[in-house]
Design goal:
The protein is of the alpha/beta class. The protein has 15 helices and 12 strands. Helix 6 links the parallel strand 4 and strand 5.
């Protein structure tokens, strides 16, 4: 096969989503918290067996909403990995709380349970485990220690829609789960997120905060004759136009995740010979985890090898990429939070050597074989 043009990510969208948008616009009521938004929330409740779901404009906003719901205050501490997207830590910073970074496990790239224990202080109010690539953190261990210490657990399940831990959906195990429906995720509406909980207190606080700090949701349900400013909040409601797209994506979720998992496993088996030769390290999935095929990554031995592989794949028309720059080594992490390079050696090593490959349902068998063959040639 000659050089191709293989994108890193292509959303799985079709005529159904286009028709849904057109229908939503014809309804005229395109603001948030309307009939389509409520239908979408009901679908998510049924999938996750959760009491409450609130659609949000992003997972970033779902995380901010979650910290409002658990009443995070200035100088409270929130434990999270440094190997994550900035939103995980920024949610704490927005509330003038302190993000406390923890190391990751080199095998799973998820937050290290033993390191969490070392970071807990009297000021710790929340732990935010990030399910990297849709593979579960040690939720059994995290929930056990959080319950013992009276700490809230907010799952950053941005990567994890449809993935499971011991047959339970990720995002529905902790006190609150936060999801992303960004264009790069398995299910998408372009930009969007969801806040999920079965805790009535957290739900009530989040419902008010999502609607600018008002009881507008109660007004829409006919519970009050007018709505008022009740508490602090912001504008986190997802438009019904985007909810219409997400409804169609949820209908396709099994098809999308099944295809992505098939591609993930094909990569895993086809690249095993390179791992046996010591050229790459491949993902390790714990037996209690059921993945969703969100990301396929491999790790090279050095940063130089990783960068060389990305550049050579690009020459062949294949978009592959690195991932998170550790938050503790970022300008904000160093200058404001006081971290320095070397504080989390596993996180830094993973960041320097990780390489993500294209994974989405539309990838053909020929394209997959071309990607795998190209990696083999580059590393031969």
């Amino acid at each position: 096969m000659k050089n191709k043009s293989i994108k890193f990510n292509v959303p799985y969208l079709g005529r159904e989503e286009a028709r849904a948008v057109s229908s939503a616009i014809k309804l005229i009521k395109i603001v948030g918290n309307g009939a389509l938004g409520q239908q979408c929330e009901s679908m998510l409740k049924n999938i996750f067996h959760a009491k409450y779901v609130l659609l949000t404009t992003s997972c970033t906003h779902a995380l901010e909403l979650a910290l409002m719901a658990v009443n995070i205050r200035p100088n409270d501490e929130v434990i999270c990995p440094s190997f994550t997207f900035v939103s995980t830590a920024n949610a704490a910073v927005r509330h003038k709380a302190v993000p406390v970074f923890a190391e990751i496990d080199e095998n799973t790239l998820n937050i290290d349970m033993e390191d969490i224990k070392k970071r807990i202080t009297k000021r710790t109010r929340a732990i935010v485990p990030v399910h990297y690539a849709g593979a579960a953190c040690d939720m059994g261990g995290i929930m056990k220690i959080a319950k013992r210490k009276g700490i809230a657990v907010i799952e950053d399940a941005a990567h994890a829609i449809g993935a499971k831990y011991k047959n339970r959906f990720l995002g529905a195990i902790g006190d609150i789960g936060c999801f992303s429906f960004h264009a790069t995720k398995n299910l998408t509406c372009g930009e969007g997120g969801a806040f999920l909980t079965s805790n009535n207190k957290y739900y009530k606080m989040a419902e008010i905060a999502r609607e600018k700090g008002t009881n507008r949701s109660a007004y829409l349900r006919g519970k009050v004759d007018k709505y008022n400013w009740i508490n602090e909040g912001s504008s986190y409601v997802l438009s019904d136009v985007l909810a219409a797209v997400l409804i169609e994506q949820l209908k396709k979720r099994d098809r999308i995740i099944k295809r992505r998992k098939r591609i993930f496993n094909y990569y895993l088996n086809a690249l095993k010979n390179l791992q046996d030769k010591g050229r790459v390290s491949l993902p390790r999935i714990n037996r209690e985890c059921e993945i969703n095929g969100h990301i396929f990554y491999l790790r090279l031995n050095t940063e130089k090898e990783r960068n060389h592989c990305i550049n050579e794949l690009k020459k062949k028309g294949i978009e592959a990429t690195f991932h998170f720059v550790p938050l503790h080594t970022s300008p904000y992490g160093r200058k404001v939070l006081g971290y320095k390079k070397g504080d989390f050696p596993v996180t830094e090593k993973v960041s320097e050597t990780i390489l993500r490959l294209p994974i989405y349902p539309q990838l053909s068998q020929n394209e997959l074989d071309f990607i795998i063959g190209s990696i083999g040639k580059i590393l031969s």
